[in-house]
Amino acid sequence: MKIKGNMTLKIIIALVVGIIVGSIFNLYQDASWVKWFNQYVFNVIGQIFLNLIFMLVVPVVFVSIVLGVVGVGDPKHLGSIGLKTLGFFIVTTALAITLAMCLALVFKPGAGKADLMNSDDVKKYALEQKQKEEAAKAEGTSVNQTFDQTLINLIPKNPVLAMSETNMLQVITFAIFIGIGMIALREKVSGVKLLFEQTNDILMFIVTAIMQYFAPIGTFGLVATAFTSAGFGAIKQLGMYFFVVLLALFLHMILVYGGAIKFLAKRSPIWFFKGFAPAMTVGFSSSSSNATLPISLECAQDNLGVRKEISSFVQPLGATINMDGTAIMQGVATIFIAQISGVDLTIMQMVMVVAIAVIASIGTAGVPGVGLVMLAMVLTSVGLNPAAIGIILGIDRLLDMTRTAINISGDAACAVVINEREKQKLAKNVA
């Protein structure tokens, strides 16, 4: 089933109405009736929609990765696609944070705002982080994962536990092993392959049904909740920071993703963004790449014509490790915090920020609150106070919505590029 254009329009209308209603309610956010509406109407509608799509995330990822691996067939070819995917993600992430830092240096969002470093938000964030670190130390765990821990944690001790905890990297690893096993056994497991294909059909039918009947009202609920709680009031003090992040996200989407579609995939960027619009709107409202994954897969396969085996491998991996939108936030936030701290970063320090952000986007995948964990790592590496993150927390929820739409677009752009390059390669071999 294909997500039609009129459904995209309905979701966009619901999104706009949610912003308007939420912004109006935000003006009266201390009123008891607004709190009641926000908690028992907007929030309930939004959370039911989120739960409906989260319900499908693990089964969709597991089944689609298995079918993707089996569909590619040759493990060497799978490795080739994997390397191309990883290369695309690394390059676009590096471009994202570089663009963000350049724009922040030009627009200077932190100029004349040194007083923000003495705000209560900084003190509150520092206290919360100290409490988290003490709790983690008491439990014998760590707030951050080291590189060796990340590598070890790629392999699940218990696949069922990994699925129940929605540990996507472990789910993907397990699915790849199952797929390789099915390739090796071939006809012996043809019945299992058929079962996976039929399960995938059922899951995609449910995804389409949720989109058709619940996406608009669910989108309205999520967006209305976000804007009732945050509104535009938080933007006033950090207006230039907010503007620079949005500008960087927009330019990255148009120049990098649009350029990749135009020059690498030889397709129209307008065709790409139009076909992927339903997933982008759901990503915006949900603020979760993983939650949006079932819709992202369907849009890529049905609207953009990406082969299932490529889409099923590239996009779940991207939802876990490809975070261009988050990298952009880190780039702007690092320069912003340096400016309000009165610190001039050297060229080498800025290069270090780019390198750490690119590595961290893969190395810290699966960590709760990953964007802020990564930002704290980046700030510490160049001698800036990570407690300054507290300053931007007030508007981060609104920016997170936009970042998610960019993140999933990058995954889809990668899938389209690899799909079209594979088609071109096949055409040359046939000729």
UniProtKB/TrEMBL annotation:
GO MF, one annotated term: symporter activity
InterPro entries on file: Na-dicarboxylate_symporter, Na:dicarbo_symporter_sf
Single biological process term from Gene Ontology: dicarboxylic acid transport
Cellular component aspect of the GO annotation: plasma membrane
The keyword Transport appears for this protein: yes
Keywords: Cell membrane, Membrane, Symport, Transmembrane, Transmembrane helix, Transport
Membrane-protein topology: Multi-pass membrane protein
Record has Nucleus as a keyword: no
Subcellular location: Cell membrane
Transmembrane residue ranges: 7-28, 48-73, 85-107, 168-185, 205-228, 240-265, 345-366, 372-395
SUPFAM superfamilies per the UniProt record, alphabetical: Proton glutamate symport protein
Top-rank taxon, per record: Bacteria
Name of the molecule in the record: Dicarboxylate/amino acid:cation symporter
